Inverse folding.
């Protein structure tokens, strides 16, 4: 028995060392120098980034374009700036490079468009007597319409806080949820808020994950479901306000809300950012974040490039001068058309040219 045990453990150790050996052989390593860090960065994205086909990016040609620029004479900052320039070729707000002295970021997804939001107008509508909890600002406007401002999903949102807010709104005729300029945060917080607007389980979209190193190696679409919660649920008229700076988990929130009953989206197209981000590290210790898992709406349309509103409304200069938010005022009119369903309201506002009505993509 003793001899048998010794042979068994020798076999286990041999198999273990064999696995380690083959793992080391298969995993390519890179030197901690400008050329090696560049090659590591390019390969991480080549094998794990998820939007090459959808964005029409020839990643090999990007390698050929930037590889000659890396040499041992480069300073750390020159190395960083050149890598950041290469990453901008992906046109993705979820792609970042982090060093001890800077963070590479891409903001053209929002900066090249009309803002359709004013923090000075927000202060006019909220005043000074608004409620503030879990990062949410809320108030009942003069015409008995509830207003909830959610500027980020980074803060934890407790179920008891949502109960209190919705109970406070119990006598209101409708609710405006303003997520303009919400750049995202925790997806769980977005789901927690959206779950308050349905009384049954809803299919809200799909997601995929990488299954291999090829640009088209993905799993089948996996359904995303939104389930109601135990607590206060709101099924009255609800308007969600959006602009191009709605991104990441806030973009997902809009996707969920489009599936909820009695909800309409007003404002501008969202900024997108539907690729669930992952992170990795370069030989020099810098970290890179990138989109790895694509997400889709319930019609299987990719939401990386944003979600259209039901009504496209821009903030006008004339209204701004009168200290009026065009988008909020339009949402209030949608809610105050009492006794009419959304189909009737859509015909009403389209007929009189009050906005551009848009269907889903």
């Amino acid at each position: 028995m003793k001899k048998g045990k010794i042979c068994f453990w020798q076999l286990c150790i041999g198999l273990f060392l064999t696995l380690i050996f083959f793992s080391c052989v298969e995993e390519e390593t890179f030197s901690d120098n400008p050329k090696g860090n560049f090659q590591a960065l390019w390969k991480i994205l080549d094998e794990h980034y998820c939007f090459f086909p959808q964005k029409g990016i020839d990643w090999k040609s990007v390698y050929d374009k930037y590889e000659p620029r890396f040499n041992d004479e480069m300073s750390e900052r020159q190395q960083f700036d050149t890598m950041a320039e290469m990453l901008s070729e992906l046109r993705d707000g979820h792609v970042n490079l982090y060093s001890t002295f800077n963070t590479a970021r891409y903001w053209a997804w929002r900066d090249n468009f009309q803002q359709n939001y004013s923090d000075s107008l927000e202060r006019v509508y909220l005043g000074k007597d608004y409620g503030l909890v879990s990062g949410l600002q809320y108030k009942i406007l003069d015409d008995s319409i509830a207003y909830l401002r959610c500027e980020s999903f980074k803060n934890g949102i407790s179920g008891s806080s949502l109960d209190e807010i919705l109970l406070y709104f119990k006598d209101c005729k409708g609710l405006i949820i303003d997520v303009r300029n919400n750049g995202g945060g925790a997806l769980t917080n977005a789901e927690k808020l959206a779950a308050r607007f349905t009384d049954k389980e809803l299919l809200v979209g799909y997601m995929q994950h990488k299954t291999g190193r090829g640009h088209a190696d993905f799993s089948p679409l996996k359904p995303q479901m939104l389930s109601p919660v135990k607590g206060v649920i709101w099924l009255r008229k609800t308007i969600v306000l959006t602009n191009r700076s709605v991104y990441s988990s806030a973009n997902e929130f809009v996707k969920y809300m489009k599936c909820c009953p009695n909800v309409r989206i007003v404002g501008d197209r969202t900024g997108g950012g539907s690729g669930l981000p992952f992170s990795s590290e370069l030989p020099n210790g810098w970290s890179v974040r990138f989109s790895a898992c694509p997400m889709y709406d319930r019609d299987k349309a990719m939401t990386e490039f944003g979600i259209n509103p039901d009504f496209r409304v821009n903030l006008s200069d004339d209204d701004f001068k009168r200290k009026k938010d065009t988008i909020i005022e339009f949402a209030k009119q949608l809610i105050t058309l009492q006794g009419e369903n959304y189909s009737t309201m859509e015909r009403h506002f389209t007929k009189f040219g009050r906005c551009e009505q848009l269907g889903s993509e």
Observations:
- The longest strand covers residues 287-293.
- The mean pLDDT is 88.
